[in-house]
Amino acid sequence: SMDNVGTDVQFISPRPYLQMHSVKPGRVTELWSIHCNDLIARFVAMFPDRFRGVAGLPQYMDEPLELRAIPELRRCINELGFVGCLINPDPTEGLGDPPGLGEPFWHPLYQAMTELDVPGLIHSAGSCSARESYTLKFINEESIAIISLLGAKTFDTFPELKIVVAHGGGAIPYQMGRFRSWTVRKGETETFDEQLRKLYFDTCNYSKEAIELLLKVAGTDNVLFGTEKPGTGSSRDPISGRDYDDMKPVIESIDWLTEAQRQNIFECNCRRVYPRAFRKDEDC
């Protein structure tokens, strides 16, 4: 339960890999997204002090975002009181070649998100490829998304846009040397580290070593606490005796973090990034 792992408030979205974005016709994912979002809204209404809603969007693979996804985003924020949304970088679920998140195709969504002041969590849906499991799909799509957003200078166009990348940023924070070199070869004046810190990251990584590297690379102001316990469940680490996805003890065990940095990771960063989730008088 949330109490057992020390979670006060949990954000709830539709389960990402079951969003059915590649199922034809587009009306299928629209009906499914509306149904899931409505169920979440009812659940949040039952426990308003413990839960917040995050919208799943009906991003059908062959349609512009203005047709279904953006209207559902506006409904969830304005009518259901949700605080953010999911963004699936590949609505084809491996069947096609979707535009990168830095491409103009996505700009109407970013415009709506900034108008509504809601962040987007990068999290792919399913994978139809036999050579790419959905877990691997997550990491690959997060990596592609980061490089597309930064390469296209998306935050120059949308300086107020807030993007959180799931699972500690895919592979990018752990391959920094290659992308530092990439920006130098392109003759850019802004370092790759500076560009990366325009994004936010969660801690759903399961590895203390990886979380420590993420915090050092991305900075403790850009990492938001994320755990999958309670959630889908995980296996138990035979060495530590804890579940792999119980991340609070992991962060507490990082001895070089100050108390202020821990508070930022556990709470304050989330309050700043998700302003609709908390009252203004509750800011850190």
> Counting H and I runs of at least 4 residues, what is the number of helices?
11
Shape: globular
Give the strand order, joined by hyphens, for the main sheet: 1-2-3-4-5-6-7
- By helix and strand content, what is the structural category? alpha/beta
* CA-atom Rg in angstroms: 18 Å
Counting DSSP E segments of at least 2 residues, the number of strands comes to 7
Largest β sheet strand count, sense and barrel closure: 7 strands, parallel
Helix content: 25-40%
N-to-C span: 25 Å
- Unreliable stretches (pLDDT < 50, length at least 5) are none
Beta fraction of the residues? 5-15%
Order of helices and strands: HEHEHEHEHHEHHEHEHH
The overall average pLDDT, rounded, is 94
Describe this structure in words.
The protein is of the alpha/beta class and 284 residues long. Helices cover 40% and strands 8% of the residues. It has eleven helices and seven strands. The protein has helices at residues 2-5, 26-46, 69-78, 107-116, 134-151, 154-157, 176-185, 192-196, 208-218, 248-252, 259-273, and strands at 10-12, 51-55, 84-87, 120-122, 163-165, 200-202, 223-224. A seven-stranded parallel sheet has the order 1-2-3-4-5-6-7. Helix 4 (107-116) links the parallel strand 3 and strand 4 (120-122). Helix 3 (69-78) packs parallel to helix 4. The radius of gyration is 18 Å and the shape is globular. The model has no long low-confidence stretch (mean pLDDT 94).
Fold blueprint:
Blueprint: H1 2-5, E1 10-12, H2 26-46, E2 51-55, H3 69-78, E3 84-87, H4 107-116, E4 120-122, H5 134-151, H6 154-157, E5 163-165, H7 176-185, H8 192-196, E6 200-202, H9 208-218, E7 223-224, H10 248-252, H11 259-273
Parallel strand pairs: 1-2, 2-3, 3-4, 4-5, 5-6, 6-7
